[in-house]
Design goal:
The protein has one domain: Hotdog Thioesterase (Thiol Ester Dehydrase, Chain A, Roll). The chain is globular. The longest helix has 20 residues. With 146 residues, it is an alpha+beta fold. A hairpin with a 4-residue loop joins strand 5 and strand 6. Strands 1, 2, 3, 4, 5 and 6 form a 6-stranded antiparallel β-sheet that branches.
Length: 146
Amino acid sequence: MNEITRPENDTYKFRLPVQIRFSDLDALNHVNNSFQAQYYDLGRINYFEKVMGQQLNWSEILVVIVNTETNFYMPIVQGDELFVETKAVKFGNKSMTTHQRLITAKGEVKGTCKTILSGFNRNTNTSVPIPEDFKRRFLAYENQTK
């Protein structure tokens, strides 16, 4: 099994606390699925900025999301001490894959997300190879020891 189906066996270097707001809750007092997607976006943005070592100008970003796969394992409720963890797991010529999970301070994995991003040129509106320097930064971050 891979990380997405066995999240309890996975390790992540990047962790960001998530503030659960009252407006994130649905009628069942669970965090709505659409807000969980926003938590993953927040984690991915902060992960990219950590790896790149600076605040990014997102109008100049080199990749765009082309696919997401989300798994919901357990409800997230107000009072959960929640974190979103993020890592890059694969690079191709024109694509990269990230894995994320929503996890509590108690170690309960509430959900996972796999995202495929494609190199993108906004001037031509086309897919392009991901620059080698961009790849190297992510690989160096993921391969460093804590």
